[in-house]
Amino acid sequence: MCCRFALQKSHARTVLAKLGILTASFAAGSEDEDNDATLPASRYNIAPGTSLLALRATGDAPRSGFDLRLSAFSPRWGLIPGWAKAPGNPPPANARAETLAEKPAFRDAFRSRRCVVPASGFYEWERCGRDRLPWLFRRRDEAPVFFAALHETWRAPDGAVHQTCALVTTAANAVMAPVHHRMPVMLDGDDALRRWLDPRIAEPVQLGPLLVPWPDELTAALRVSTRVNSVRFDGPDCFAPPGPEEGAQLSLGL
Predict the structure, then answer these.
(1) How many CA atoms lie within 13 A of 62 on its CB side?
(2) Most-buried pick from 79, 98, 131, 233 (CB within 10 A)?
(3) Which pTM was predicted?
């Protein structure tokens, strides 16, 4: 599963430039990313129920280098199907890859409303007796990753329109497995991104091969401070190593 992740401002710029969807204001932004108000602020503790940066194919955006028209949007994390009379309590933040094609809450979005969520890394917690010890999982080269996600538009009884999303999860790889048995689907390479975002691809048999664990050799796992346990903390200290009182093991690996 994945219920917390981070996206640094520098990675947001990298992602938007890579996909060719920098708006004029983004493209003209300051080279000083820390003080560039045209980019999304760095977030180190993104939790369900909050809005996040996502990217999807759309008919009215400029064509990107991916031969798709892509745009950025800000759905709320926790998917509400368009047909639902009321949101779940809470709305699901994750959708299991193995059942996307069958579950009523996800099957329509799986066929026609797919998106990606860029991230710098994600957190998972190891149970050690009564303690929950946080681990940060990210690429070994510290480049951004792209989570496979689904999105929906839901109209509330009062007429308000809500954009919502869920992250797709799969079985954990060998690096992740000692901490948790599930991990988010991260799309590996440009072809995987293109296929996931392409609305012309709709059959589960075409999409299933994308929904696999991230390669072990690309995965880094680092113990981080327990400050990230609380959603009140959302600064770079969430990436800091644990203090001496929080345990000695600092990394996992093969």
Answers:
(1) 9
(2) 79
(3) 0.90
Dist CA 148 CA 227 (whole Å): 27
Token code pair at residue 209: 């091969």
Dihedral sign (CA 22, 190, 58, 56): negative
pLDDT value of position 252: 58
Paired sense of beta strands 161-171 and 94-96, if any:
parallel
| Each residue's pLDDT tens digit, 163-204 | 999 999 999 999 999 999 999 999 999 999 999 999 889 999
DSSP string, 157-223: TTS-EEEEEEEEEEE--TTTTTT-SEEE-B--SHHHHHHHH-TT---HHHHGGG-SPPPGGGEEEEE
What pLDDT, on the 0 to 100 scale, is given for residue 246?
Answer: 67
State the pLDDT at residue 104: 96
The structural domains of the chain, with segments of one domain joined by +, span 5-252
Give the three-class secondary structure for 151.
strand
Q: Are 74 and 53 in contact (CB under 8 A)?
A: yes
- Give the span between the Cα atoms of 76 and 189, in whole angstroms: 26
Q: Do residues 6 and 239 lie in contact, with contact meaning Cβ atoms separated by under 8 Å? A: yes
Distance CA 226, CA 126 (A): 11
Supply 120's token pair.
């710098």
CATH architecture of the region 5-252: Alpha-Beta Complex (3.90)
